Amino acid sequence: MAQEKSSSASTKLTELLKLQVGSISETIEKEGRTIFGGSNNLLGTDEITDFCIEFLQLLVALLESRDPHNDGSPQFHALEMFFNSLSKQILVRGGRVEDLVRYIQFMQRTLIEALAHDKKNITVDDTRDALLFLSSTFNELILAVFQAYLDEKERTINAQEAELRETATPITEIWDGVLTLPIIGTLDSNRTMLVMEALLNRIAKEHASAVVMDLTGVKNIDSQVSHHLIQMVRAVQLMGSDAIITGIRPEIARALTSLNIDLSGVTTRASLSDGLKEAFRRMGIQVSHKAI
Amino acid sequence: MSIPGLHLTQIGSGDFLLEPSRSLNICDRDKLIERIAARLLQARASRLYYDLSEQAIIDPVYYAWLNALAGTAIAINVRMVCIHMQPTAAFALAQFIHEIPAFETALDISGWQRTTQ
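Structure tokens for the assembled complex are given below, as produced in the milestone run.
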């Protein structure tokens, strides 16, 4: 019985939509141009026209499907995907999710208002069913938009994190076979793993004989960080390269001693330049002033 | 004299290259070590290069095998140098070792020769 009722409501809604497709399309297109077009420059006029037509086509396809209330149907999925890609397109171009949600609510309002044009042929029950259908469908579509927004945000955050990781630990080949790694900020387990992985791969790739790790930018150190540091030095040595630690501040040196960290197998130098000199010395490279 | 699971080749005066194959069975490590040591002694070897290029991961069992072999080599006055250690293996090994290994390491044979010159 309920199925029959909703089917009658969707048939009426479909008829209404088909009858008034021109005015509905014009209204939502006009609003679309105000929100996304013009000076906002998020979508072109043709793009707005196209998406309005596509939206109405997809909505009619959903209404004509066997069960328009089934949010697992291919027709419903197509409508969801349409809004998902539309929101991604708008967000990538700098649009706001709030504007898109308001626009979807405007579309819903336009369709509800269209029902009022045919008061004679629509019963109260049909109107109620049509309203229920529209509100549940548009709620799902707004959720799809928010999902796309969250996906896009997550993608941006991941990209920014990757970029930050890349720039926070620049491994530079300062001389043939000599790598420098300035460590700035705090070394936690996660960061140490990433730095170590990048450094070891770079040693293998560049065939580096020496790595100078500069700790000038490390402000404080605790037991865990010093442990990570020693692990990093050990891994470099296991690869067959020389590890030289430079720029240990007095407070860091004191902290290492009080933490009972064994630095006997580690070469340390006061500054990065001293570290480089040591690396060159080990490689038999001599850098001198040009005789005038 | 062939030793199952590995190739032991003389590459210069006193230098030997050990290349383990996939069939190397380190469960029987004592016998293997004895045979390798016998070969090194016979040829009056002074250096043993252990090629780790095919070893993506070094676990505690494999590390114990390397250490035992290096320890025996030292006992017969042979320096064991592990070469071509993979980044993944160095990464894994650095996580669990707490002491300096009995073997030395180098990027490759020429790299080690350069540093010892």
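The helical segments of chain B are 29-42, 60-75, 87-96, 109-116. Residues 58 and 94 of chain B are 10 Å apart (CA to CA). Further analysis is deferred to the final report.
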